[in-house]
Design a protein that fits this description.
Elements lengths: L3 H16 L2 E6 L5 H13 L3 E4 L2 H11 L4 H5 L6 E6 L3 H10 L2 E3 L11 E3 L2 E2 L7 H7 L4 E4 L2 E4 L3 E4 L7 H9 L5 E3 L2 E7 L2 E4 L7 H22 L7 H18 L8 H19 L2
Antiparallel strand pairs: 1-3, 1-11, 2-3, 4-10, 5-9, 6-8, 7-8, 11-12
């Protein structure tokens, strides 16, 4: 028999799913208690509601909410799950969670969250047994100036691969921390659409650069088309002045602003003719 407490929790989840326009699923597996408490407090301040429960109850609540395509989100409930509810957008939610993660060393048995790449370059290791240890996980080295140098970037684990004890120890010795401590956002539902976490990643630096570039292109196009705005008027007038002056100089049209340059141009042309004719 289902306890009243569980029924009450399911109803609370259903109510939240209908009240908030954004519903997310996170996996809290391997998240230390202290980190979990910090994340809960941070999310609360951001207006994000987090409710943790058994997978069965979370899936039941999602299905009972009868939201469009919510079953696609229910399929993403795994590990030690919790549901997030927010009135912000999915991209902001993803950004908040990612920015509050910290790097951590890999442990044997963990799943690689992404391709783990050991970069090429010098190490602090002297030649010895470490050469075979590195080779055992796919890292090729050579000796330079008495120290080992990794020859090429080496992908030692693909995304989703289980990290072996040997690889975990090697990464630790190389001081590579491929894991992240924090909430693992699995998927987000909004208005009938379900976004995987990867789809919500936005490179903010690249995005800002793209906007700057687009603004410059728009400015250039407006100037070339002669579209007058507060931003383009001065530039267009300067461009028109330069072009009109160039035409006047080329056609030897004397004005107060062109006489000096027309005469200088004529002198250069006369000298050029003189040199060519050996006069």
């Amino acid at each position: 028999m289902v306890s009243q407490e569980k029924k009450k929790l399911v109803q609370e989840l259903i109510k939240a799913a209908k009240e908030y326009p954004i519903v997310g699923v996170v996996n809290m597996q391997s998240l230390p208690a202290q980190q979990s408490q910090k994340m809960r407090e941070m999310l609360r301040k951001k207006g994000v509601k987090l409710i943790m429960a058994r997978k069965k109850l979370l899936k039941l609540a999602l299905m009972e909410s009868k939201l469009a395509n919510i079953e696609q989100l229910a399929e993403k409930v795994k590990g030690m799950p919790a549901l997030l509810f927010t009135k912000d957008n999915p991209f902001t939610l993803y950004s908040i969670i990612q920015k509050n993660k910290s790097d951590a060393p890999a442990k044997a048995g963990q799943e690689a969250p992404k391709d783990i790449i050991v970069p090429a370059g010098p190490t602090g290791f002297a030649p010895g047994p470490i050469i075979s240890e590195l080779a055992a996980v796919g890292i090729k080295t050579k000796v330079e100036n008495g120290k080992l140098t990794i020859i090429n970037d080496a992908t030692v684990a693909k995304e989703g691969a289980i990290i072996t004890p040997k690889l975990a120890e090697t990464l630790k010795r190389l001081d590579i921390k491929p894991m992240e401590i924090g909430l693992n956002l699995t998927a987000v539902w909004e208005d009938g659409l379900v976004f995987a976490a990867k789809q919500l990643h936005v490179d903010e630096t690249e995005y800002a650069q793209n906007i700057t570039q687009a603004a410059q292109w728009a400015m250039n196009l407006a100037v070339e088309c002669g579209i007058l705005t507060k931003e383009t008027t001065e530039v267009i007038i300067q461009k028109a002045f330069r072009e009109a002056k160039a035409v006047a100089i080329e056609s030897a049209y004397l004005t107060e602003g062109t006489t000096e340059e027309v005469l200088a141009k004529s002198e250069r042309e006369a000298l050029s003719v003189q040199q060519e004719a050996n006069l």
